[in-house]
Amino acid sequence: MRVFDLKPTDNKTFAQEALQLFQKQAVEVAIYREFIENLGINPKSVTRIHEIPFLPVEFFKSFDVYCGKQPPEIVFTSSSTTNTGQSRHLVSDIEIYKASFISSFRYFFGNPQDFCFLFLLPSYMEREGSSLVFMAEELVKMSNYGQSGFYLHNHDDLYAQLIENEDNNNPTFLFGVSFALLDFAEKFKLNLKSTTIMETGGMKGRRAELPREALHQILTSAFGVNTIYSEYGMTELLSQAYSNGNGLFSTPPWMKIVLYNPYNPLEVSNNNSGGINIIDLANRDSCAFLQTSDIGRVHPNDQFEILGRFDYSDVRGCNLLVY
Question: Percent helix, strand and coil across the chain, each rounded to 5?
Fold first, then answer.
């Protein structure tokens, strides 16, 4: 499927593929079709990306957003840190998700086989249905390093493995939810040369939310690294964006950010900041056009940064609250 072609994708080609998928989902995804009808929009009149109506991600909490021909192969669920309920993402073919996160990792970092993956994801591991845990399990399977694996609260074992990897110059990725990385950083001080720290965001109600800059300052000091990498993802998406430590996220070629006017979510923002809409062409059997409650800024090179969240939104488990 062309969506996973990692050759540079020009804007015209992306727009063609997005509009084609929109016409399909506007008919076949029942709740999205009803949403568009209630807006009084005729899908056939939509001829540009900026005219596409974006479905609020909150719909995934109350409705099955799905148009697969067969029952879903897997259902991913969000963490429930508030009383607003869990999102449910029905996935028709798990191979689509695998292709997305594996191709994305290769696009940004290289072959997964070449890295040792250590995951510090206690809150995700303690429940079922996490798309992040599924991705982590697949990366561990792909790794050529038998030391790859998961850690809950066994910080001593994680520390020992990091030291061993450093002694052997093993290229390592440590993925961690924010509160768990902070807990670990308070116990151990390291000087990591062969390890990339990737925070997935989220305090999960375990700690007070921190601005991203403050979080990264604590972690860089504790781990002896120059930068902390970040992942931007959510249950409702099958793709992720990544930051290499400067607070600017980049998307894979099949994912795009479109800003909306905070005062009118149906309008495209007239400047480089606003609410974040996401087009994820990997969401081919759910909805590829999602409106989040995140506030962001898009830069000329199509990178984006997260500025915060709208006051009326609940704090999502996998996105960091930033101001």
Answer: 35, 25, 45
**Helix/strand/coil for 241:** strand
Neighbours of 122 (CB within 10 A): 19
Structure-token pair, residue 105: 């990792």
| Whole-angstrom distance, CA of residue 101 vs CA of residue 109 | 12
Write out pLDDT tens, residues 22-79.
999 999 999 999 999 999 999 999 999 999 999 999 999 999 999 999 999 999 999 8
| 266: Cα separation from own chain's centroid | 23
Number of H helices, E strands in the chain: 8, 15
Rounded distance between C-alpha atoms, residue 178 and residue 124, angstroms: 12
Please spell the DSSP secondary structure of 71-125, one letter per residue.
Answer: --SEEEE----STT---EEEES-HHHHHHHHHHHHHHHT--GGGSEEEEE-HHHH
Which segments within the chain are labelled E, that is strand? 55-56, 74-77, 88-91, 116-120, 149-151, 172-176, 195-199, 229-232, 241-243, 249-250, 255-261, 264-268, 273-280, 289-298, 304-309
End-to-end CA distance of the chain: 38
Q: How far apart are CA 253 and CA 56, in angstroms?
A: 22
What number of residues does the chain have?
Answer: 323
Q: Which helix (H) or strand (E) holds 203?
A: none
